[in-house]
Structures are given as structure tokens and as C-alpha cells.
Design goal:
By secondary structure, the chain is of the alpha/beta class. The chain has 11 helices and 14 strands. Helix 6 links the parallel strand 5 and strand 6. The longest helix has 18 residues.
């Protein structure tokens, strides 16, 4: 069978990398230079460079070029993909991806972050993931709710783990990375008790509050109202869009409540919290004197306009270590227990 032009170029470049023509951190020729050398089109050249990247032989840096990693062509034990579609809370998956890559590569396994975009019809473009599968993907860490991903990985026989909350549509995952959030809920309730707070508004992105948390709140005599931010398949997520949804959610609630304030507002995302906080400030509400703001922290230090804000914190570094250790153990035939994503509550000073 005749080889594709991109495969011919990739093999030639891999041979030169193995022969030491370019050292680590030296820039490869530009796309234009490679097009001229191989008498090939831009798509074929870029596809070949993507193959080098997918095999861990080079990195592609915007405004810099293609940089060899210094790894041998045959150095990697295999390849792992971190698959996500998180655009509204990009900080957390980005940090998690970096930590996963560090841990996997330290153990000899190449890792590539695979971001999949959703179309207006509610489906996603799985072509980037299919390219990785075609190159011999060993394992996948999935942070997405789309059934297409599971179907593709199952059909290809690629094992994967998945984050808690997506298991209803991904029943064949090797393991579920569960959120260990009970302690942080107990700490939040204790925080409310000590300050005599009895009412909570939950501003959410179309998910259900954890039942055990809801029961704990009820047992503590705390009433809960919720305001959902609804999105459709044509929504183009951005941090600005999520911030605007937080602003509108608070406006809607206060309009219905006749301006009566809850004691605490719990936001599902810290950009929702940013928008909601701006809405409160615009209405003359004092924070935290009149209302305490609590948010699930997904963006580290990007919050919050100088306003004291309590947080339920995710730790992408610790989680990345736990996932990588578990997956490497599976890949190398060792027994290991699936990690749990431990969250903690940090009260505003």
C-alpha cells in the first residue's frame, strides 16, 4: 500500500531525529522550508509534524516552531491521552494536563492533551482523538460527558478512566475518579453554623447538588434555593460568557425574592462567582457583611476583584499525581487503588 505523503515526511524526520541531526531544544525547519524540501503541501507537512508531537518526539510552540524533545524514537513505553472538552473552566484541566504529562513522562509514558470541540448539533469532532488511536494509544484519561468518546475508545479497545459525574454514559471505564468532598461540605456547614447563617442560594451549571450535602444542610437547619444557568448546544463557552451567566443568575434570584438576600451564595464555578459578585456589588450589597460568597475554585488565583471569597478547592497537582500513579500501575501490570479527588473548604478571612 502506498504511504501517505505525511507518513513519508514523518518517517524521514524521525530518522533524522534519531540520527541526531537536531538536538533537544533546537528548532526544526519551518513549515515553508519543509514544504519546499519535500515538495509537499502544507497539510501533509503539518500532519507529519503532528505525528512527531503525538509520539513525544517534538513539541509545537506557537510563534516559535517545532522543538525536538531529545527523546529517542523508540524511548517511550507507550502513549496516553488526556481527553477533555472543558472550555468554560479551562484553568483546571490545563493545570491537570501539565501535571499528568510530567508524571507520565517521568515514568516513560508519553502523554498528549487532546481537546475536543463541540459542534452546534451537540456532537463533537473526534478526529483529533482518532489520530491518537491510529498511532497506537495505550490508555486515556477522560474528562468529558460526551458518549462519542466512550464509543470510540471502546470500539478501538483502548482502556480509560473517567471523572466522577460522567459514569452514566461511560459504563465501561476501567475506573472512576471520584470526588472526595464530604469533609469540605462538613467544613462549610460548620462555617455557616458558627456565623449563624441559615439560608443558601446555589448558582449551578445544570447539575444536581450532592444528595448527602443537601441532607446535611437540612439536618443543620439550613434552607437551600437554587438558580440554574441553562445552556443549549449552540452555546459558545468562554470565561466571559460564564461570568455573564453568574451576573444574570443573581439578578434573576433577587428580582424574584424582592431583594431579600440569602446568607450564603454557593457558586459552581469561580467565574460564575465573579459575575454574581459583580451583580451584588452593583446593587450595593456588602460582601461578606451582607452575603458570604463561596465558590468551587477552578481557576486558582484569578478570583476575585479584591472581595473576600470562601472556596472549595480542587488541587490539580495532587490529583494529577494520583491519576498518573494509578494508570502507570495498570499499564505495567501492578495492582493499585483508584485515586480520589480530595477537595477542601477554605474560609475567607
Amino acid at each position: 500500500m502506498k504511504k501517505l505523503e505525511s507518513e513519508r515526511i514523518a518517517e524521514a524526520l524521525k530518522g533524522e531525529l534519531e540520527a541526531g541531526r537536531w538536538k533537544a531544544n533546537e528548532r526544526l525547519p519551518s513549515v515553508a522550508e519543509l514544504r519546499e524540501r519535500f515538495a509537499a503541501g502544507e497539510y501533509a507537512v503539518r500532519s507529519a509534524l503532528h505525528k512527531l508531537r503525538d509520539e513525544g518526539l517534538a513539541t509545537i510552540k506557537k510563534h516559535v516552531g517545532v522543538i525536538p524533545t531529545g527523546k529517542s524514537v523508540f524511548a517511550w513505553k507507550g502513549h496516553v491521552a488526556f481527553v477533555h472538552t472543558s472550555t468554560n473552566s479551562a484553568y483546571f484541566p490545563q493545570r491537570l494536563s501539565v501535571q499528568l504529562a510530567r508524571r507520565f513522562e517521568a515514568a516513560g509514558w508519553a502523554m498528549q492533551s487532546v481537546f475536543l470541540e463541540a459542534n452546534s448539533d451537540g456532537q463533537i469532532d473526534v478526529d483529533p482523538l482518532m489520530r491518537h488511536v491510529a498511532c497506537g494509544l495505550s490508555f486515556a484519561v477522560v474528562m468529558s460527558e460526551f458518549r462519542q468518546i466512550a464509543e470510540l475508545l471502546d470500539m478501538a479497545g483502548v482502556p480509560y478512566v473517567i471523572f466522577d459525574g460522567y459514569t452514566r454514559v461511560f459504563p465501561n471505564a476501567r475506573a472512576v475518579i471520584k470526588n472526595d468532598i464530604a469533609d469540605s461540605y462538613a467544613e462549610l456547614i460548620d462555617f455557616m453554623r458558627k456565623r449563624g447563617k441559615k439560608t443558601m442560594l446555589e448558582v449551578d451549571i445544570e447539575r444536581r447538588m450532592d444528595r448527602s450535602f443537601k441532607q446535611q444542610l437540612s439536618n443543620a437547619g439550613i434552607s437551600v434555593r437554587r438558580e440554574l444557568c441553562k445552556f443549549n448546544n449552540e452555546t459558545v463557552f468562554s470565561l466571559r460568557f460564564v461570568r455573564e451567566q453568574g451576573y444574570r443568575a443573581v439578578e434573576r434570584f433577587l428580582a424574584r425574592a424582592g431583594g431579600r438576600l440569602p446568607d450564603v451564595i454557593l457558586f459552581d464555578d469561580d467565574y460564575l462567582a465573579l459575575g454574581g459578585t459583580l451583580a451584588l456589588l452593583a446593587m450595593g450589597v456588602r460582601i461578606p457583611q451582607d452575603v458570604s460568597v463561596v465558590t468551587y475554585a477552578n481557576h486558582d488565583d484569578e478570583m476575585l476583584v479584591g472581595v473576600p471569597c470562601s472556596r472549595i478547592e480542587n488541587n490539580p497537582v495532587a490529583l494529577g499525581d494520583g491519576i498518573a500513579n494509578y494508570v502507570v500501575a495498570l499499564l505495567e501490570g501492578r495492582k493499585a487503588a483508584p485515586p480520589r479527588n480530595r477537595l477542601r473548604f477554605v474560609a475567607a478571612v
